[in-house]
Amino acid sequence: MKKINIGAGASWYQEGWELLDNGSGGYNEHWKHKGKSWDSGLPDNAYDVVFTSHMLEHIPHFRLEKTISEFNRIMKSGGTIRILVPNLKKYATAYVSGDESYFSGSQHYSSHLGIGGSFVRLLISPGQQTLAVSREMDEIFGGYAHLYAFDFDMMRILLQKWGFGDIVESEPGESHVDELRDMQHLVHDGQRYERSDPFVKKKKYLKTGKEWHFGGFDKSSSTQLVVEAKKVRDVPYSYDNEYEYNKQARFDDSLALVKLGIYRRISAFVDFSYSLARKLGVLKLIKIVLRR
Q: pTM of the predicted model, to two decimals?
């Protein structure tokens, strides 16, 4: 049985599982794949179980349908997918009822604009996944993490469209797949710590110098939406099959693609040069020269 965690991060490990991510960290092991969720490079009809936790809210809506389609492509017929995302309905209910305490426990919490700001910051939050670039491509304003949010109906519609059925809303730790009932945790120096442990919450494990990794699956949060479904048919991806809404303001004209191609090559050259300079021990010298 083949199983994969998409968006797990390079520091996650579970025996018998593969992972896919495009973040920082090492991807040298054969079971670690570096790539995009909508363009994974993974084989067709390969996986019996796909799990993804709090990843889809980081995907721009321009790539959302292609991502769901990619899940369908890599999964075997009858395979199980389990998805965790922030719960738009619960957030909206807390906002309308003025329940500030509902938001204050989030790592994305900010009260600088009152409860409205707290609500919006959970939907659209700063991060490293997606850059905001000016129309003229002469400024990078910053980076985003959360870009979207879902309620159950939204998720059901998307999954049905791209070949999934038996779609149910679940509770944390209550999957019909036994292995997926193992809650997310930290393994540090061979010892297990739950995510609620102060050792984990305060990230003390980073300072010990000992080996650690995350394992398990669901988070215990009551603010999330948990959805489980099965692949019931193959639905090959087609741009024409996407909702028209997802095509509006899409930045894919020919000139933009040429610019991006040039920028990508320059960026790759800079990354290579930086890595080489670090290996040769001349990075500090280069930084001194650049400061001048």
A: 0.90
CA distances from 182 to 178, 217, 226, 228 (A): 8, 6, 15, 15
Parallel/antiparallel/unpaired status of strands 3-6 and 47-53 = parallel
Q: What is the CA radius of gyration of the chain?
A: 21
Residue 194 neighbours by CB under 8 Å, 6+ apart = 183, 185, 186, 200
CA distance 89 to 137: 36
What order of strands is seen across the sheet that includes strand 185-188? 191-194, 185-188, 212-215
pLDDT above 80: residue 121: yes
Percent over 90 (pLDDT), the chain: 72
The two tokens of residue 198 are 């102060």
What 92-98 contacts at long range (C-beta under 8 Å, 24+ apart), as own/partner pairs, is: 92/119, 94/119, 95/119
Contact call for residues 150 and 81 (beta carbons, < 8 A): no
Instruction: List, edge to edge, every strand of the sheet that includes 47-53.
Output: 32-34, 18-21, 3-6, 47-53, 75-86, 224-231, 164-170
Please report which helix (H) or strand (E) contains residue 56, including its range.
none
Instruction: Evaluate if residue 290 carries a pLDDT over 70.
Output: no
Token reading at 6 = 């998409």
Q: Looking at this protein, which amino acid is placed at residue 10?
A: A
Angle, alpha carbons 27-29-31 (nearest 5°): 95
DSSP state of 209: -
Cα(233)–Cα(255) distance, rounded to whole angstroms?
A: 37
DSSP string, 132-159: EE-TTSS-EEEEES----B-HHHHHHHH
CA distances from 18 to 10, 15, 48, 49, 216 (A): 11, 9, 12, 10, 13
